[in-house]
Amino acid sequence: FSFSWQTTFQDGGEEVEDGAVYNVTLKKVQIQQAANKGARWLGGEGDQLPPEHTVRQYETSKIRAIKAGTLEKLVENLLTAFGDADFSYISIFLATYRAFASPRAVLELLLDRFGNLETSNQGEVANLNSLESEMVLRAEIASVLRAWLDQCSEDFREPPDYMCLLKLLDYLKNNMPNSDMESRVQNLLKQFQNQEVEAVDGFCSTSSSDLVDGEELEISNPEEFSSFQDHVVAEQLTYMDVMLFRRVVPYHCLGSIWSQRDKKENKNLAPTVRATITQFNAVTKCVISTILGTRELKIQQRAKIIEKWIHIAHECRILKNFSSLRAIISALQSNSIYRLKTTWMCVSKDILLMYEELSEIFSDHDNYLTSRELLMKEATSKFANLDSSEKENQKKSQKRLQLQKNKGVMQGTVPYLGTFLTDLIMLDTALQDYVEGGLINFEKRRREFEVIAQIKLLQSSCNSYCLIPDQKFIQWFRRQRHLTEEESYKLSREAEAAADTNILSPKSQKSMVKRISTLFLGTDVFTPPKEQPLKSSPVGGSSGESTDSASVSSCEFNHSETEDVCVTPVSSPEDPLKKSSVGSDKGYDSDKGSIGSDKGSGSSKGSICDAGSGLDSGSMPCRDSGSGLGSAPRVLPVYNRQSEGSCIIRVSMDGLHDSIYKSILITNQDRIPDVTQRALLKHNLEPDAVEDYELVQVISEDKELVFPRDANVFYGMNSHVNFDFILRKRA
């Protein structure tokens, strides 16, 4: 017999029930069978049919995917999703429900309302009185609970009482006594009880609190740093990144959760994400400290350290560690390092070309399309795919890669987390939590799950790494004293002033400065002020890892306003669409939309759009996540672009948290009071004080647009510059 299948999908519209709305898709499968025997098997007069004749049969099935519903309906749908052929629903719900419900609320609905067969209301689940229905219901609940324990066991970590685990254990003892699941829950409870509650900084392997008694932080000794081989440094940075990334709890990355981290009561929110950001910032600051920390270094010695870090970045690329790679590139592009023009002149041409190629990975062109495509291409590949336009670099890369392959050990992929944080923040900003009738918008959760699924895939790939910690390097790394932005800028000026500016003719100096600037900016040249540190400038766009506007905010907010501090690349005033920002010892800021800043000199706002992580329409999936269903895709509003009557702007507070900005969705119907109220709410300020503030769009360093009290923001704004706004107290 010869069979072939052809499947087509047809939009079946919507079905509305009490408390729920479903998308319906009709799945039509055409089965073709050739040959006379097949025709006879299907009931035809096979002997009378020509040899080329085929028999077609059609089978149509209905797929229902919940689009919006009450919490009760969404929990009930956990038990019926498989019957509706919405096979990804349970995974999507478990990965995103923390945005609209607590584990206790979901567990109580699942066990008390649907799992308690004596008290369940008839009609909620059909035929509950029959033994067969009871067995089916118990099996469905067991399937959901098993998936919950498999995928999100951290949801039950609630010290010291562990109320949800105890409630679950009680249900299993009554309904599934002596089952494997009961034993599993008992073991999980013991495991949680035996583990210390991990503090926020307990996740970070680079915390100075891990120092041995008596050890003190110190500025790096260049000779000690030079003693570590490049590939060893890269491997150890990757080891630390892998340990932290594997522990990231995916729901901590959701925009609705991560964007709340700046509130005082949320200082312990999302510790696993904060830990990765702290590590990112530690790498960035280590790079800056090793280059600037020793005043006595000669120009050539400082250039050699820069070359060493470029080689380490290249080794990180071979290991597919995009997190430390991005951190090193950010540090080298920070204001305090970028301005060392005489030092950069002493860096060899081949290494500058290597640096240029590595920097291109995080180009902001097309919403960081290069880094996104590369990350997905290598997510599950065994080894890095290295291409170089420079023959010598290509030869070295292939040689190093071959050494890795000869070891026979596959590699995982460590991403730059800021990309995902930005995407999730932008999704949270662009899509409503609730739809008409107060129903939870589950389509939004499907879209968020597309990003969460990528994080989970990469976490799984990290299991392929086989790295051994080198305690000598790790202790050295932890001992490093990080320079503040003011310190690094001051040391940078001293180093440059001490350089012999006459070693090159003015003409060759100009040529070299232009070449170095081109490496950073493409064609635009940006010269920082000479006499004083840069203040936070409104010109910058994205360069960090924030997530509320397009960058990642700093992760250490006890020291400065943000806690995800990171370094950001230099931005050019001439090109408002380039969203890089100048940063010194800055960090990954996730609410700002950029690798954030410590406040101080040299950093502009940035955006997690990606010091590498932005989010543009290119990164926003337009289909219904996981289901392939629903209405025609629509373009989501994005930062720096007006489309279909809406866009996303970034608003900071004048004089208060200047370095922190929030993403706000506006439409062509919004006027100043609406936008001002939303901005105040985002910044956790009193929304009733609308009349006390004026909204200002930053046009350039010395120009701004002040809006009248009742202006239409969408039509009144300047759409040819960055959509960066400031809320300022009226005089």
From TrEMBL:
Q: Where is the composition biased (Polar residues)?
A: 544-557
CDD domains referenced in this protein's UniProt entry, alphabetically? RasGEF (cd00155), REM (cd06224)
* Molecular function GO labels: guanyl-nucleotide exchange factor activity
**Which SMART domains does the UniProt record give?**
RA, RasGEF, RasGEFN
* Protein's organism: Rhodinocichla rosea
Instruction: Provide the protein name.
Output: RGL1 protein
Q: Which residues form the Ras-GEF domain?
A: 229-498
Recorded GO cellular component terms are: plasma membrane
Which InterPro entries does the UniProt record give?
RA_dom, Ras-like_GEF, Ras-like_Gua-exchang_fac_N, Ras_G-nucl-exch_fac_CS, Ras_GEF_dom_sf, RASGEF_cat_dom, RASGEF_cat_dom_sf, Ubiquitin-like_domsf
Q: Where is the Ras-associating domain?
A: 645-731
- Per the record, where are the segments of Low complexity compositional bias? 593-607
Q: Where is this region: Disordered?
A: 527-633
